Automatic annotation (TrEMBL):
Cofactor(s) listed: Mg(2+)
EC number(s) on file: 6.1.1.20
UniProt keyword Nucleotidyltransferase, yes or no: no
SUPFAM superfamilies for the chain: Class II aaRS and biotin synthetases, tRNA-binding arm
Gene: pheS
Name assigned to this protein: Phenylalanine--tRNA ligase alpha subunit
């Protein structure tokens, strides 16, 4: 049975040499597939004499069984090798120390905005927004600031360039967050309770002024809102924000075109030993402007001043952030000095809350 011995030698060798599953399958088809060499040989059995078949039959069957077993063994070996290779390449040392990743911090201004938003939200104020590039109508006219009014100059306004022949209304970088009062009134009508934190711009630069800074506007309008509620709201806010039991606020008569009467508000503090303490001492620090919304302003916002009245305030966010966190120089806020940011920044786990400041 030379032919069978030849087939056996040939296929066992090919099986042993098959480098991968595809090659092995090619060998299997050549040997045992429908038109495979061994299969064809088995089909020839039918044409043999009984005697021939008696010898060739068992020999062919044995060959088929052997080749089949060799195929299976080789397949298993190839799979084992593949798994081994994968385990080796994907090996991971779980005892290695983690790779350090530089961690950012929350900027004190962002932190303070989150804090005051949480505190005012607890008092029922929603957040309103407006654009930083405003028409002069929203920034001035609607707020009862006449074109020749000196406060247009006082505010050191940045005007946007207009090409000759451009008839669009003049636009400015908003000089305060007060235009958001008008936008909120137009959008919601009365009653209304909103705060509007955001960026504002004035041409000014020294240790306590930067050309861009932050304010939070407050606006509450209802049928019987009074100055007393303004005072309570601001005191409640300061207690929560500065995390002290008692604060003392001083209302100084002042003037803003968009409020009547108007008051600037100072907070009692002390500077003993170069350390700022809120709520005690003999010094006063101005933190905001406020007043009862002027009837002209209500009307500009589409609200009838015979039916509704309210208070408004505008507070310097950078100022109260400096006070709360003992940051001496305003300009440092915007210099993006990493050492400063790491020192004064907050981790993202520092959640602002109203409860933190209220010990009642
Ligand atoms: N807009 C004023 C300012 O920027 C602050 C203010 C807001 C005063 C609302 C009264 C009422 O100085």
């Amino acid at each position: 049975m030379d032919a069978i011995a030849t087939l056996r030698g040939k296929y066992l060798e090919q099986i042993g040499a098959a480098p991968d599953a595809d090659a092995l399958e090619t060998v299997r088809l050549a040997a045992l597939g429908k038109k495979g060499e061994i299969s064809l040989k088995m089909r020839e059995l039918g044409q043999m004499s009984a005697e021939e078949r008696l010898i060739a039959g068992p020999a062919l069957n044995a060959l088929k069984t052997e080749v089949d077993a060799a195929l299976k063994a080789r397949k298993a070996a190839l799979e084992d090798a593949a798994l081994d290779a994968r385990l080796k390449s994907e090996w991971l040392d779980v005892t290695l120390p983690g790779r350090p990743r530089p961690m950012g911090t929350i900027h004190p201004i962002s932190q303070v905005m989150d804090e005051l938003t949480a505190i005012f939200a607890d008092m029922g104020f929603a957040v309103a927004e407006g654009p930083q590039i405003e028409s002069d109508w929203y920034n001035f006219d609607a707020l009862n600031i006449a074109p020749e009014h000196p406060s247009r100059q006082e505010m050191d306004t940045f005007y946007l360039h207009r090409a000759a022949g451009d008839n669009r209304p003049p636009h400015v970088l908003r000089t305060h967050t007060s235009p958001v009062q008008i936008r909120a009134m137009q959008a919601q009508g009365a009653p209304i309770r909103v705060i509007a934190p955001g960026r504002v711009y004035r041409m000014d630069m020294d240790q306590t002024h930067t050309p861009m800074f932050h304010q939070v506007e407050g606006l509450a309008i209802d049928r019987d809102i009074s100055m007393a509620q303004l005072k309570w709201t601001l005191e409640e806010f300061c207690r929560a924000f500065f995390e002290v039991d008692e604060v003392e606020l001083r209302f100084r008569a002042s003037h803003f075109p968009f409020t009547e009467p108007s008051a600037e508000v100072d907070i009692r503090c002390s500077w003993e030993g170069g350390q700022l303490k809120i709520g005690e001492g003999k010094d006063w620090l101005e933190i905001l402007g406020s007043g009862m919304v002027h009837p002209h302003v209500l009307r500009a916002g589409g609200i009838n001043p015979d039916e509704w009245q309210g208070f408004a305030f505008g507070m310097g966010i950078d100022r109260i952030a400096m006070l709360k966190y003992g940051i001496p120089d305003l300009r440092a806020f915007f210099e993006s000095d990493l050492r400063w940011l790491r020192h004064y920044g907050f981790t993202s786990l520092d959640q602002p809350s109203l409860a933190a400041g209220l010990s009642r």
